Amino acid sequence: MNGEQLELFFNLSLDILCIAAPDGYLKRVNPAFTKVLGWREEELLARPFIEFVHPDDREATAGVLQALIDGTNTVLFENRYVCKDGSHRWLSWTSSAAATLDGLFYAVARDVTEQKALTEAREELLKRLQASLEQIKSLEGLLPVCAWCHRIRDEAGEWDKVERYIAKHTDAEFTHSICPDCQARNFPE
């Protein structure tokens, strides 16, 4: 692969590509980096990259930077970067340690903001579903009901009103009314 091909690969990548120095400054970024975050290349190269990291993620990011300096490759480190408009994007990083000949870090990141949002929404939905399932009580098996008075026999063998039995075993509440057939039969006028 010649230099022109490498340049084309760097510039056309949909993933974020960058080269950084151990002093914490970016030396080169590809167009995807500027597109995702909204900062111009000159702005990204002028300040230590830690300044673009979300404040809550700076300590962990500094730890990863130190590990890279110490020679440990980083695979799937996630942090948030602050965009020029003030929003933030989640980036998932893979980076080589500074043990290369030139002492620089070569890193690739993918914007995983949408995946994180979907995961969070899924987890919230699962929590709500679990809470709902905990609230649901069910009746199972055969329920002995008197054919004449419609009372039901409970676990202790006692006969009770259906309404009381169901209220005791579920969260259902009863209201009473009269169906059209009973109304016609019992109140014919």
Short description:
This protein has 189 residues and is of the alpha+beta class.
Which features characterize this protein?
7 helices, 7 strands, rod-shaped, alpha+beta, 189 residues, 5-stranded antiparallel sheet, Beta-Lactamase, two-stranded antiparallel sheet
Number of domains: 2
- The name of the CATH topology of the largest domain is Beta-Lactamase
Count, helices: 7
CATH class of the largest domain: Alpha Beta
Biggest sheet, spatial arrangement of strands: 2-1-5-4-3
Order of helices and strands: HEEHHHEEEHEEHH
Report the major sheet: 5 strands, antiparallel
Please report the distance between the alpha carbons of the first and last residues.
98 Å
Radius of gyration: 33 Å
Global shape: rod-shaped
How would you characterize this protein structure?
- With 189 residues, the chain is α+β, with helices and mostly antiparallel strands.
- It has 2 domains: 111 residues, Beta-Lactamase, CATH 3.30.450.20; 38 residues, no CATH class.
- It has 7 helices and 7 strands; from the N terminus they run αββαααβββαββαα.
- Strand 1 and strand 2 form a beta hairpin.
- The longest helix is centred in the middle third of the chain and has 23 residues.
- The model has no long low-confidence stretch (mean pLDDT 88).
